[in-house]
Design goal:
The chain has helices at residues 4-20, 38-51. The chain has 60 residues and is mainly alpha-helical.
């Protein structure tokens, strides 16, 4: 199930796509981020930024 924030992002992306005639797509990381802990997710993101090493995305 998508969180409230994720749903809002999808709605806004669809609105922009409709207004511009663009396609939408989703970028999904190979290894998902924690969904139960916002703080844990933020800590992982901070480490990635410091290392300049970001999650790989799944191939389409």
């Amino acid at each position: 199930m998508l969180g409230i924030c994720s749903c809002a992002i999808h709605i806004i992306a669809d609105m922009i796509a409709d207004a511009t005639g663009a396609d939408t797509f989703e970028i999904v990381p190979e290894k998902g981020y924690p969904k139960d802990s916002y703080n844990e997710c933020i800590e992982i993101a901070k480490k990635e930024i410091r290392r300049k090493s970001y999650a790989k995305s799944k191939s389409l």
